[in-house]
Amino acid sequence: MINVIFDMDGTLIDSANAIVCAVNEIRADLNLEPLKREFILDTINTPGQNYAKIFYGVDTYSHTSFKEGYEKYFIKHYDQSVVLFDGVFEVLEFCKKNDCYLAIATNAPQESLVPILKKQNILSYFDKILGVSYGIEAKPDPMMLRLIADEAKYEKSIFIGDSLKDRLCAKNAKMDYIHISWQKEIKNLDEANDKTTLIDKIQTHMKG
């Protein structure tokens, strides 16, 4: 069997609306104009951005996640509007039935993960959840994937994500990658767009 590592936002949970609402509420409290939805989502999925400068007009910001320091806003909006993508339960059930080691590697703050996953009733599926915290670098740095792979059950690991940061993280970690674009057109060989194509891709890696 294999270790299957998932990104969280955009991969397991549809958090786009929560992120946009949280960023714009923070901006409102800082007396800044709201940003457009697509601009916010494109920015967070692009590596190497100065997120705090772009989103909040903050020049000195020591965190690698744009959520750190503003957790209360994200907790509020995640609680209100986050949902699982259709098919996530079936994918996780398939992995568990096949005795895969399951983990999460996300750029969300570590302390926010348990409440989010508990609310979506998927916490119990995972053997390891790892987010950004002191000493843990954000993706596309490969640190999280390497830490998980080093302590995981099996020799072979795959990473499933939805963004350029995820793709680069897998490349940097020299790990096989599946790109999930829920309900969008498949453009590359490593892509899946629903539970069926995702399970098929995972199965292919199990056999390989």
From TrEMBL:
Pfam families: HAD_2 (PF13419). One of its GO terms (molecular function) is phosphoglycolate phosphatase activity. It catalyses: 2-phosphoglycolate + H2O = glycolate + phosphate. Gene3D superfamilies: HAD superfamily/HAD-like, Putative phosphatase, domain 2. One of its GO terms (biological process) is DNA repair. It is an enzyme of class 3 (hydrolase). Its EC number is 3.1.3.18. InterPro entries: HAD-like_hydrolase_sf (IPR050155), HAD-like_sf (IPR036412), HAD-SF_hydro_IA (IPR006439), HAD_2 (IPR041492), HAD_sf (IPR023214), PGP-like_dom2 (IPR023198). GO terms for cellular component: cytosol. Pathway: Organic acid metabolism; glycolate biosynthesis; glycolate from 2-phosphoglycolate: step 1/1. It comes from the Bacteria. Belongs to the HAD-like hydrolase superfamily. CbbY/CbbZ/Gph/YieH family. This is phosphoglycolate phosphatase. It comes from Campylobacter lari (strain RM2100 / D67 / ATCC BAA-1060). The lineage of its organism: Bacteria, Pseudomonadati, Campylobacterota, Epsilonproteobacteria, Campylobacterales.
